[in-house]
Write a structure and sequence with these properties.
By secondary structure, chain A is an alpha/beta fold. Chain A has ten helices and twelve strands. Chain A has an eight-stranded parallel barrel with strand order 1-4-5-6-7-10-11-12, surrounded by seven helices. Classes of the chains: A alpha/beta, B alpha/beta.
């Protein structure tokens, strides 16, 4: 059976790993390549690198980092952060990234999703959705959670899959950094509404939260950052717990 | 020993060459027929679309070159699918090395593409030496090869299908050994030793 995936996320700033709490108050958490190798050895199923600097002058540094990561790790990885053109994607995939994740650029120009999936294949196009529950609905935010849009997360998810997105990385801004659990309701709604995998993100604090998002949230994968960086949860212990709870997991 | 990775318009050649570097093999990435014909080992990776990939191989006359090879040959993912008879993706005839046809996953309850780690069973041939039954490998695909006489590994995703095929010197794997951790690395080492 296809296993549920555990995905550590590494936020990258100026070539170092950092982790924000509620998208702010960034703390340093180490060298990305070292961390990536350690995660792969500990049983991570995939890795996500989000470049939170992602300005044009930093792009070259990111490409070099991606090549270094690709040389050293033997599991798939996604790169995101500030990607806005076919050229950006082409450079990252050629550098060795398996998938790329786009967010704001797709909201500004939804046809970009179609262009990317036509040229590189849906399997490498991950759509990141940052969403916040307010006024009784889940709204999509862009620019790293700074700008609200009128898009509703469920509608947007359906639309991007039609356009060719191969996977959805869904982050609940209400939950992110709280360690109080994933946003089960919106994860379930989107996972059941689309025919591509959904990665749940934001709010992981305990091993039970992962069980909850796989069983009740119907997530295909779960992503977390700080609890893995600061070793509050060991990946191998998490995976043993999930397997003991009859969730299909690669150990 | 000379190991060649076939360069074409559907390759994730870099990932495969990095994986080979990790086991001490420096591979040549090329679409030159003479280089391919004189190699000791040939690998055809692939992430892309079947009909455009076949068209490229035919234009470069690599289709006849590949079928004439007698050294160990490994197709990965789309590379494996192109070694089969026919693919529903782009409705194209393929290289015809394996008997199978390539079909689209059409099970409504399952997500397509299949993306992630799934288990492989009924392992045959030395390609899987040291790899245990039910080992996980990383897969990303929407089309699959049916079971048949050439099947040397099976996986279940709504249906039992071929995740590895073999005929004489030709091997194909649907999963990505270059991205499948230690088990994938073992498979690449086994291939290099064939």
């Amino acid at each position: 059976m296809l296993a549920k995936r555990i995905i550590p996320c590494l936020d990258i700033k100026d070539g170092r790993t950092v982790k924000g709490v509620n998208f702010e108050n960034i703390r340093d958490a180490g060298d990305p390549v070292e961390l990536a190798i350690a995660y792969a050895q500990q049983g991570a199923d995939e890795l996500v690198f989000l470049d939170i600097t992602a300005t044009n002058e930093k792009r070259k540094t990111l490409i070099e980092l991606v090549t270094r990561i690709a040389k050293h790790i033997n599991i798939p990885f996604t790169v995101g952060g500030g990607i806005s053109s076919i050229e950006d994607v082409s450079l990252l995939l050629n550098a060795g990234a398996d998938k790329i994740s786009i967010n704001s650029a797709a909201i500004k120009d939804p046809q970009l999703i179609k262009k990317l999936s036509d040229q590189f294949g849906s399997q490498c196009v991950v759509l990141a959705i940052d969403t916040k529950f307010e006024n009784n609905d889940w709204f999509v935010y862009l620019n790293g959670g700074r700008i609200k849009t009128e898009l509703k997360a469920l509608d947007w998810a359906k639309q991007i899959v039609e356009l060719g997105a191969g996977e959805i990385l869904l982050t609940s801004m209400n939950n992110d950094g709280t360690k109080k659990g994933f946003a089960i309701d919106i994860t379930k709604q989107i996972s059941e509404a689309v025919n591509v995998p959904v990665i749940a993100s934001g709010g992981a604090g305990t091993i039970e939260h992962f069980k909850d998002v796989f069983i009740n949230g119907k997530a295909d994968a779960a992503l977390a950052a700080s609890i893995f960086h600061f070793k509050e949860i060991e990946i191998i212990e998490l995976k043993k717990y999930l397997k003991n709870n009859h969730i299909e997991i690669r150990i | 020993m000379k190991t060649v990775i076939i360069k074409y318009n559907a390759g994730n050649t870099r990932s495969v060459s990095f994986a080979l570097e990790r086991i001490g093999i420096n591979a040549l990435i090329t679409d030159d027929a003479d280089e391919i014909l004189t190699a000791d080992k040939v690998i055809m990776p692939g992430v892309g679309e079947a009909s455009s990939a076949m068209q490229y191989l035919r234009e470069k006359k690599l289709d006849t070159v590949i079928c004439s090879l007698t050294q160990p040959f490994l197709g990965i993912c789309l590379g494996m699918q192109l070694m089969c008879n026919y693919s529903e993706e782009g409705k194209t005839n393929c290289l015809g090395i394996f008997d199978q046809d390539i079909k689209l996953f059409t099970f409504s309850e399952l997500k397509v593409p299949q993306m992630g780690w799934n288990t492989i069973t009924d392992l045959k041939t030395n390609l899987f030496r040291g790899i245990k039954e039910n080992e996980y490998q990383y897969l990303v695909h929407s089309y699959y090869a049916e079971l048949g006489n050439n099947t040397i590994a099976k996986t279940n995703y709504g249906i039992n299908y071929s995740t590895a095929l073999n005929k004489n010197n030709f091997y194909g794997v649907q999963f990505h050994p270059e991205k499948s951790g230690v088990a994938g690395q073992t498979l690449l080492e086994n291939f290099i030793k064939l």
